[in-house]
Each structure stands twice: as structure tokens, then as C-alpha cells.
Amino acid sequence: MEFVKLEGRPFKGKELELLKDFLKRNDLDYDQGIEYSVCLLDENYRILATGSAEQNVLKCIAVDKNARGLGLSGSVISCLTQYEFENGRSHILMYTKPENREMFEDLGFYTVLMTDDVLFMENRKKGFEEFVDRLISESPAEALKPGVAVGSIVANCNPFTYGHRYLVEQALNCCDYVHVLVLADNRSSFGADERFFMVQEGIKDLPRAIVHQAADFVISAATFPTYFMKEKVRRERACCHLDLELFGRRIAPVLGITKRFVGTEPVCAVTGHYNEEMKKILPRYGISVMEIERKGFEGEAISASEVRKRYENGDLEGIKGLVPETTLQYLEKKKEAEGLRVKPVSKASDC
């Protein structure tokens, strides 16, 4: 049987409407973050199979019920994989319905974790194990010994603020060592490497704090696709449950983590809900959740979003009391490199 391959980066106009309609008929939603799609069409320009990609995540894969058994899903996966490799992304992820496990295993994907709502897969047989091995190799031998009190913080640090540093300091008051996992999402205002650098510089005087790049296995709401879920509440629950189950079952045990620290969340409802779910799930794995009152400045909780707002407005002077000197210096150099006019910055205080 002959097929016509239609590609888009992403689709627009009539082709996009055709794709959305096909996904809807297969009980899926079109994900607005999609950067590339491929469709296999019959001679009448009807979609028989489709799949899409966003960064290194494959999504919205569907085959018409009357065309199943023809190997179309394999053809779609092959096209998407080629696209990912051409864009320098060799580690490919997939979030899908649990009932799709056997199909995608046959296509070369391996299960990282499965919950009631979500199946999380990757294209590397030992990808997760290699990630855990890296975390271990980045940790001092003393931090891996039995009986050592080990805590953890997972944060975006977009950018790194005095609030983040305060949370690390408070965690170190309760633990011998603290692992700081910096989210790898490149959809943030500052890239993963930038944020990792700012965290490293911002706490390099705290030797018992161990900084890691979290890679693809610590999941944020920004990267979690929900195209296969209809209810908003279920979507939010599925994202945080997958992340917390993966942390509790497969990350914390190898590092000996028994405490996870979070700041209070007076503003963002999503983060507040996530913290509440954390308190329910992580204790099942012997991990206590420690909620620390957020550090304030001039009567307001320090917020990375406020730092970003002032940075985008060129107001580096207004950032001084919110970020460490190391972050301020980085932001000043970055703004200068962008060739944008900034308000002059006086010597930042240490408080």
C-alpha cells in the first residue's frame, strides 16, 4: 500500500485543522508546544497515522482504527526518530497511556516508570541507570555512607535567587549533605546550562551542597505532555504523581535521601498543589517533606518571576536585594552581551 508523507514544522492552516480533527477522532488533543509533525496519508489525502515531537519528547502518536496492523506506527516513529537525530537529540522520551506499553516496547522503547495514568518511556535501555550512576559519581563518598543525613531540593532556579540560597542553607542546618537538582527544561527564560552555572556559583561556598543537572528524569509541569488526558485535574495529578513516584522509588534510595525541602508557596496554585501532593506521596518511601518559610525582601517573598520581570526591563539595580552577587554579575554580563541598555548597578550588598 502506497502512502504520502506530509511533514510540518509545525503544521499551519488547513493541514493543522486536518491533524487536529484526526487526533480528536482518536481521543487525543493537539499539543500547542509541538515543533514538528509527520502524517501518513492515503491517496485521498486522508490521515492514516501521525506523530509529533517537541524537543526530545514524542507525542500525539495515533493510527486510524482501520489502518492498524499495517506497521504505520513504526513508520511514524522512524520519521520522528530521524528528525530528533538530525537535530542532535539522541535521547528520546515518550509519555503515553499505560495500555500502549507493549506496542512501544516493540518499537524500541523502554519503560522508566508506569503509574495508573501515565507510562514514561525512553529509547535507551539503560538511560535511567546511567543518569543515576552520574548522580552517584558527582557525590562525595562521605555523602553515600549509611547513617548520613541526606536531604534534597529540586528547583528551576530561573534565575538563582537569595530565596533559593536560603532554602539550601536551611536544609544544610538539618542534614549532613543536600543534593540540589536543577531542572533541565530549556523552555525556561534562562537555559539549563545557565541556571546550573548560577546555582553552582551561588552556593560554591557551601561544600556540603551537591549540585546536579537533573537531565530528563526530573519532570516539570512545563515539559509534561497531557494530550492524552481530558480532565484538567487528572492532568495536574498525573504530572506530579509521575515525578514524585520516580523520585521516591528510583532516585532517592540510591542517594540515601530521607528529606526533601520546599519553600512555602503563597502565590502559585500549581506549585502549592504539587507541594501538598508531595506531602502525601514521599512519606510512603521514607522521605519526609520539610516546608520552609520563604525568604523575604522589603516585606515580600523573594520571587524568581519578579527577578525576571526586572531583568527584562533592564532594571538590574532593582534586582540587587533579590539575588546573590554571583547571579547579579552573570545577569549584568548577559544583558551587556545582548547589547541592551541597563540601569547602572551600584555595589550589591551581601544580605
TrEMBL record:
Keywords: ATP-binding, Ligase, Nucleotide-binding
InterPro entries: Acyl_CoA_acyltransferase, Citrate_lyase_ligase, Citrate_lyase_ligase_C, Cyt_trans-like, GNAT_dom, Rossmann-like_a/b/a_fold
Domain N-acetyltransferase span(s) in chain numbering: 1-126
EC numbers: 6.2.1.22
Top enzyme category: ligase
GO terms for MF: [citrate (pro-3S)-lyase] ligase activity; acyltransferase activity, transferring groups other than amino-acyl groups; ATP binding
Catalytic activity, reaction form: holo-[citrate lyase ACP] + acetate + ATP = acetyl-[citrate lyase ACP] + AMP + diphosphate
Entries under Pfam families matching the protein: Citrate_ly_lig
Keyword Ligase attached: yes
Record function comment: Acetylation of prosthetic group (2-(5''-phosphoribosyl)-3'-dephosphocoenzyme-A) of the gamma subunit of citrate lyase.
Protein name: [Citrate [pro-3S]-lyase] ligase
Lineage, opening ranks: Bacteria, Bacillati, Bacillota, Clostridia, Lachnospirales
